[in-house]
Fold this protein.
Amino acid sequence: MRLSLWLGGTLTLATVLVALVGFVWTPHDAEALNIANRLKAPGGEFLFGTDHFGRDILSMIMVGARTSLAVALAAVGIGMGLGVPLGLWAAARQGGLLDEVIMRSNDLVFAFPSLLIAIMLAALAGPSVMNAIIAIGVFNIPVFARLTRGAALSLWQREFILAARAAGKGAARISFEHILPNLMNLLIVQGTIQFSVGILVEAALSYVGIGAQPPTPSWGRMLAEAQTMVSFAPHLALFPGFAIILSVLGLNLLGDGLRDWLDPKTVRR
Amino acid sequence: MLRYLTLRAVSLALTLWVASVIIFVVMEVVPGDPAALMLGINAREDTLAALRAQMGLDRPVLVRYGDWVLGLLQGDFGVSYTYRVPVSELILDRIWISLPLTIYALILSTVIAFPVGIAAAIGRGGPTDWGIMGVTQLGIAVPNFWFAMILVFVFAVTLGWFGAGGFPGWEEPLAAIWSLTLPAFALALPQASILARVMRSALLETLDEDYIRTARAKGLAPWGVLWRHALRNALIPVLTIIGLQFSFLLAGAIIIENVFFLPGLGRLVFQGITQRDLIVVQSTVMLLVFAVIVVTFLIDIAYALVDPRLRK
Amino acid sequence: MSICIEGLNLRIGAAPILQDVSFTVAPGEVFGLIGESGSGKSMTALATMGLLPNGAQTSGAIRFEGENLLALPERRRRALRGARLSMIFQEPMTALNPLRSIGDQVAETVSLHSRASAFEAQTRAKEVLDRVGLGRFSLDTFPHQLSGGQRQRVMIAMAVALKPALLIADEPTTALDVTTQARILALLQELVAEEGMSLLLITHDLAVVSGLAANVAIMEKGRVVEAGPTADVFQSQTHPYTQRLFAASTHQPERHRVVGEASVLHAADVRRSYTLPRKTLFAKPGRIEAVKGVSFTLREGEVLGLVGESGSGKSTLARALLGLEPVDSGSLTLRNTPIAQTMSRADRRRIGVVFQDPYGSFNPRHTVARLITEPFHLLDTPPSTAEKADRVAQALTDVGLSPDDASKYIHQFSGGQRQRIAIARALMVRPEVLLLDEAVSALDVSIRAQILDLLADLTGRFALSTLFISHDLTVVRSIADRVLVMRDGEVVEQGETETVFTDPNHPYTRELIAAAPVLRVNGGPPARR
């Protein structure tokens, strides 16, 4: 489906652009309180309306995009940076003690959804954006480690790996020269998906107050603040929600489109 | 089968044990003195010492860990620093909201996802398939707590079919279930989208297998092929996802309780964090991890029931 | 007549798959449909069964029991499938549903087409499973508990449970060992005789058909190029493709034998065993001995054939010879240098290897130049870029490819070309020993003949000593100077090729040779392939 690729690419690009533009320009000051303009309906000067402090919703969304993207990106970075080498290592030592230890630790992390990790971190050091990054990132590690190990194991069975071993190459060199390049497509696709999951989880954590803290702008916290006012000012909840939905949808479509386009079937089990 | 399940049980018990160590260590590192928190900043030093001794905080770490685990095994979760009542009572009051909500959502998600996923697979490439793939793609992108707010706005505030929140208690079972319905739907729909897509792709993959051709060569009609040969085989990846969804739904339930003002574990644990009532946080997290691991084990049993290759 | 295919055309999308295919299978006869991969023989079978992929368009007629199958509505065709017409497939490992018992799967055919009760269906299932020689297995057995040959018997039981008029067998023994193949073919022959059904036997192997079929049709590129009574077709060979096919099947590569006396590769009492997974949590893990005391010598310039069925230990031995796996005891030496996992790169480069799978042997992301120069890793001073390019060009020319191919990727080549590239890679650093691990087993017979010629030429030109590992007796016979026969990890017989084949000593060797199908032309003495 080429449509997924285009639509997903466009939405993702738009999200990134909005976040970047937010650094240099927003329609209004996202943090300026102006009681005179409180709870303005969408349209006119305030395209998406204002909140109960008179802040411009559009500007807040533009600035909040940074937090969402930064947290999700950092979390994917942690997950890939640690998960992929662990997965490669486990596959190279298949059946060995190390493989067993890595895989059992993965099971362990799977028993702690990101929320629980974030709860513990918040109890430990107080809520912060860093907590969200670590909580989501740690949960990403086994996701990438398992994917990498599984695909790498089936590659290790292939005869071109035997040929490389017969050419005297060691496990580390084979992992990076032959295994990793053949996993790249798979990892890119999964990376996109985990990116979108990261945005969703960050929003949830900020919503319950254990992610981004004031004054860091965040879509999840905007929704938390909107909650009591939904009945008379639904726009407070609608627009940040749409922002989350469109960015996540964009990344998921991009992931699907990339999967079909890059066709990592060659290594998928 | 016994061997497989024994191995899994041992492995999961080990996981549970390591998890308890991690949780205990994390909570141990937390700065701050629980006794000081309970008595306030103006407490006298000797009163503090007495309270610490009473709470057992002056004993070595290993002893306290041992006590905590032994306590957990007997259902004794310690005493809350702020409420001054046993944590087990606090949890027991609230778990009867969070757990039923999770299970309700899991059932809804499965009940919705199966027919939808099957319909998409049957109509592969056709308009039904396209429609379902589009809607589920959107469904995955919707944050459940936001969806919950919209549901409240539409069905509670505007239409008035549901109360806007709160929980009547299980003394009135129907009203209780009714009050959990909106939150369960909010939780279930995004997960149902994921599950439906997994169901579809698992089914499509199975339908490409050689033994499906064998079944057709026998003269089975398409429905017979699907029902007798494809569905059960496609269930294995679907089970994996259902198992994972339990932990996501449990986490989601804790978050979504906020939207509906449900007095569940979520409120307890977030209050615990703000009030630095660590024993509550520690025990609740341990309990949730336990629930996730138990469900993992149940899924392992389900694998063995579905797949004879595991039943040796 | 049982089935009559008249002017069958088939296209999928724009691509014509079958053109004007016609032949008739008489009641009670075995009819052989022969062709290489891509000839359209399987599609002919699927068209007959009504199992064509979506988007297939047919014209012509398939007449069966007075009706044109192509004109029947799907519902009527379903009623025939499995009852009057049935089919077995090539891959027994994947053709059975892994989650349902064999009894269930056989009984399903019965209950689907008759009003039989569940009990009657089970009883019938038991009867046919007994008949195909699976009497010692209960109906509750699951496919994973059976071997490949046994699973193929379950498939046969399923197919013949309702005594169909026509059984189609699509390469039924290609995935099986030679002794198993002989037993399955014998079973099929018996069933045909007993039940009076017809058998349409589809195969790439002329020899399989020669002893079995009364009539044959030979297919090439979607057309029947020659058809008639087996003896006539095999003798006259009027069509050029038939001639080429026969020439390739009986091909004898020419070799200049320059066998010296010196030992190049020597194995002395080599043993290797593996640990099995534990049966229970606390039991000691079992061990399986894959190689038990193998000794042999490969002499200078010699082609030594190593024959064995699956599980004979030949693959384990091959990996040990490459220094990829340790041995438990005994020794492997390459001109007095011990072979081990720790051997130096300088020693490693003295053995080159070609594997079986032309598709899995190459990293799909590297160019041919990079693929075939991988063994340069074994040199202490890798050649300069210019010299590298020269050697790549030379190596590609040596194996009959063009130097321009160096910059291409592997997916741009056919199976036969890929094996040529694999040979180029193996010879890149001028090894003394070439190890061929089922190197021609995945190839069509005409391509195989070309690769065998190439190997014969190169081994002579580069004075290579070759260990030729294969399950295929006839191929080994055509190229090897001496043979080793392995079974269950032991060498049961070794000697000069002709001596072993004409006067085998060990009962297993005799069984193997008897089981291998022989291509008879004109009912005369078996021709050597």
About this structure: Chain B touches chain A through 51 residues (CB under 8 Å). Residues 222-260 of chain B form the longest helix (39 residues).
